Description:
The chain has 251 residues and is an alpha/beta fold. The chain contains ten helices and ten strands. The strands form two sheets. It has a six-stranded mixed beta sheet with strand order 6-7-8-3-9-10, with helices on both faces. A four-stranded antiparallel beta sheet has the order 2-1-4-5, with helices on one face.
Amino acid sequence: MLSLKNIHKNFGGLNALNNVSMEVEVSSITGLVGPNGSGKTTLFNIISGIYPKDIGEIEFEGKNIDGLSPSERARRGLCRTFQVSKAPAKMTVLENMLLAGKNKTGESVSGAMFRWRQTSYTEKLNAKKALELLKLVRLERLINEYSGNLSGGQKKLLSLVRVLMADPKLILLDEPTAGVNPSLTREILEVIKRLRDQGKTFLIIEHNMKVITAICDKVCVLDFGKKIAEGTPQDIQQDERVLRAYLSGKT
């Protein structure tokens, strides 16, 4: 699904990523872990098109996506969430969901004026899909609540299902359980595993090793911008290089 080859990124004199290569298989959950400042979010930003890479290749479904904007990558099915919720606080939960709906012909002047029947039909389909996804994470009772009034865990759930409105093939999740209580964490993990079993593919930044062990098929570990280990969660937890990175006082 995703192939990264020899990715480099510098910010002035800071070497943020150094020769990072990894692959994400179809219908899998891959974890991206490492101490604070190891380059995880920088790599996410490069994959999603927010930052340009300096050197290297990025392929999505076997095709090079260098030069594509974040929106073009999203239209191809590569979508992401952020560690801090980006949901407009003064829009309701349902309105936030509809923002991410596909084929919104009513947003153009010609669509609103001349294709109003198609627009109406598409809006109904998007509303139906939004309600189904909100039921998946038990947020349907909050459809008319402003997103700014949601708890931290509820915002994480909203971010996850809002991405699903775009029918993504690969979903990048930036710390989906950070600051979330144990009950909601279990719900988030169950949703992710269920979606994986239905064919979705995930790349997840996560600090909680219990979460990584519970859901990931493979884990890639970064430290000081370099990949230091890759393997199953069980292998990673026994790797001396990983233990040294996490015990170095940077976590």
